[in-house]
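1st attempt posting a full record on here, be nice pls
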Amino acid sequence: MNLLEHAFWALVIQTAVGLLTRNWWAGAALACGYFLGREMAQAEYRWIEQFGGGLRANMPWWGAFDGRVWPKADQFADWIGPIVSTCALAVLMGRRRRED
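the predicted structure (as tokens):
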């Protein structure tokens, strides 16, 4: 998936939660948590391959935060895109609610 697809699916998740609960921020948190968790898991796998000898037991707790396993800008965009798009929608829906 690319940045636009990540943002699109995050908005879909947020919209489903927002319409069911009327809590657009909860939808944003759920969607962003999914995509952030996904990217962190991929970073863990990269760390294990590059520095851990292929063994998860060799990875320290901070392995996924190691900048050496985040070499490409699109790896950041894959979680920043959903955060920006869902927060924007949550703010917009919050303003809309106040106007009603």
